[in-house]
Amino acid sequence: MGTMKEIRHPIRMSSFGKRDMRAQFAALPWRRRNGKIEVLLVTTRDTGRWVIPKGWPMNGKTPAEVAATEAFEEAGVIGVPADQCLGIFTYTKILEDGELPVVAVVYPVEVTRLLSDWDEKPCRKRKWVALKKAAKTVSDIELAELLSDPALQKRLI
């Protein structure tokens, strides 16, 4: 494990109370290809931004199991989730009735199979990219920082 990083992007909760913060569990689908690590990114349904699969807690499932379920639903991933968190990032989820601050906890999911047809295929794209390119492709600043962390690749192997 590395050392603690200074928080560079504080959570903005000026119009929210402490209890308004929500948690999601995110999957970082990954594979080894030609000796290098690649991660699978998906687009959001609404804006088409590149992100990683994530979703709300599910009754009876561990956070890593939720992450694997989201990877299956959003990207057609069948894989093996690990229980060790890779990191967190925060973002603001835009809802019909306003905004909601969210902290996303990221779990690795080693991809064993990728389906050619999956639930959300009609509304999402997916692509494999190297970690460095993934960090440049995603729009969430904190997720980009997590993906560009030099220790991340070692933690996936």
From TrEMBL:
Keywords: Hydrolase, Magnesium, Metal-binding
Cofactor(s) the record lists: Mg(2+)
Domain of life: Bacteria
Any one annotated GO CC term: cytoplasm
Residues of the Nudix hydrolase domain: 20-156
CDD domains according to UniProt: NUDIX_DIPP2_like_Nudt4
GO MF annotations in UniProt: metal ion binding; pyrophosphatase activity
Signal sequence, renumbered to the chain: none
Stored Gene3D superfamilies: Nucleoside Triphosphate Pyrophosphohydrolase (3.90.79.10)
PROSITE patterns in UniProt: NUDIX
Record's protein name: Nudix hydrolase domain-containing protein
Native organism: Palleronia abyssalis
